[in-house]
Specification:
Its EC number is 4.1.2.25. The protein is of the alpha+beta class and 119 residues long. The chain contains three helices and four strands, in the order E-H-E-H-H-E-E. The chain has a four-stranded antiparallel sheet with strand order 1-2-3-4, with helices on one face. It has a single domain, classed as GTP cyclohydrolase I, C-terminal domain/NADPH-dependent 7-cyano-7-deazaguanine reductase, N-terminal domain (GTP Cyclohydrolase I, domain 2, 2-Layer Sandwich), CATH 3.30.1130.
């Protein structure tokens, strides 16, 4: 079956994440890049959003999962995001998510985790 790739580049949000004392007290910025390969089950009809996967729904799930509660590890958060996407969007066949902390270190632009999973 053919697929279509939906991608997000640098979603920026504030999240409660980390195990260090200052991370437990305040939110910190995260940047999220994501790619999703989606089954193309029908022909796109330009006037009908229901003929494609509405990427607003994917974005909402990512943002909601990243901001709903404190998470200690980026690894845990990336797993939760991919699990949610696979649970809510059955047409998604492949997911790649990269979550980074841009303020973690002063000597690099960001540090983060990238997770890929397919079904």
């Amino acid at each position: 079956m053919p697929t279509r790739r939906i991608f997000f580049s640098q979603i920026s949000l504030d999240a409660r994440i980390g195990i260090l004392e200052h991370e437990l007290r305040a939110t910190q910025p995260l940047h999220i890049d994501a790619e999703f390969d989606v089954d193309v089950g029908q022909k796109v009809q330009d006037q009908n959003i229901h003929t494609v996967l509405d990427y607003r729904l994917l974005r909402h799930a990512i943002v909601d999962e990243c901001t709903r509660a404190h998470v200690n590890l980026l690894e845990t958060l990336s797993e939760r995001v991919v699990d949610r996407i696979f649970n809510e969007f059955h047409e998604v066949r492949f997911a790649k998510i990269r979550i980074s902390k841009p303020l973690a270190f002063s000597d690099c632009a960001a540090v983060g985790i990238e997770l890929q999973r397919s079904r």
